[in-house]
Design goal:
There is one protein chain. It is built from 11 helices and 11 strands. The protein is an alpha/beta fold. It folds into 2 domains: 183 residues, Rossmann fold; 116 residues, Phosphofructokinase domain (Rossmann fold, 3-Layer(aba) Sandwich), CATH 3.40.50. The protein has a 7-stranded mixed sheet, sandwiched between helices. Helix 1 packs parallel to helix 9 and helix 7 crosses helix 8. Bound molecules: 6-O-phosphono-beta-D-fructofuranose.
Length: 328
Amino acid sequence: MTTAAGIGHIGVFTSGGDSPGMNAAIRAVVRCAIFHGLRVSGIQGGYNGLVDDRVVPLGARDVSNLIQRGGTILRSARSASFMTPEGRSKAAANLRKHGIDALVAIGGDGTFTGARVLFQEHGTPIIGLPGTIDNDLYGTDRTIGYDTAVNTAMEAIDKIRDTASSHDRLFFVEVMGRDSGFIAIACALASGAEYAMVPEKLQSINELTRALQEASITKSSSIVVVAEGDEEGGAFDIARKVKEQLPDKDIRVTVLGHLQRGGAPTVQDRILASRLGVAAVEALLKGRHDAMLGLVNDRVVLTPFKDAIGGHKAIEPELFRVLEVLAT
Ligand code: F6P
């Protein structure tokens, strides 16, 4: 069946760093497409799969028992070949060969940059879903995977708190987020950390050591959450600089790393992915494209790719104040 928007066959793929909830989004896209009488195919390995023609038909039962699984059954990658005009021409030819009329791309800003170029050069209608743990996309309050990553980091920091207290130690815990501090501020608040170093807020080592000295008047242990993109460096760099100023402190560093990208998605991420997956197919059927779907104030909204990529999403300043007040 071909619809009024000229769409009878949708392709779905995941691209960039994986995030918990991508599978739930794939499931929602597949089931919604089938609900509307469309064919649906999965493209494996992100844009690489488009260039190399790794396309598999998907049915409703192919996405059974998937909503609860971390990772992505379609695999993911950051593609070098798709960055070239030749690679994109091959991708467009493969889409024509399979009769795929439109795409749903699940990923972050790199994914949407690629989607824009494919649309501009070859006219492929694409809707994006925000799949990244970093929560750094403008046009959505939360990205798919962020809530799970923050919960994972929080649980890890809770455990670090136990040993930090036992040994009266100062811990620096590094979390992911690339250039943004959303994960850091959220898991610092949720785990009762003393301080968060994030790229969005200029904080000097002097300010940090002053706060830690103040805290040590009444506390024997402290935890500082460090966003990996902080301008003072990662957790090891910052720990070294603090040690120079506070040589008596017994300091340890933990880098949480990729464990933040795995695991079963939380309720929030499963529901977010399901809502946006359905909305993506229905947006394409209404003739919409070149835009990302997100949730703003609990309403599904479309934001043009250029704004989702270029716009700046700020961390609510109140969060820093709450952290400071509660670290007293
Ligand atoms: O964008 C998601 C993310 O996990 C970032 O937080 C991190 O900086 C990056 O990907 C890590 O990338 P890779 O998995 O390629 O090491």
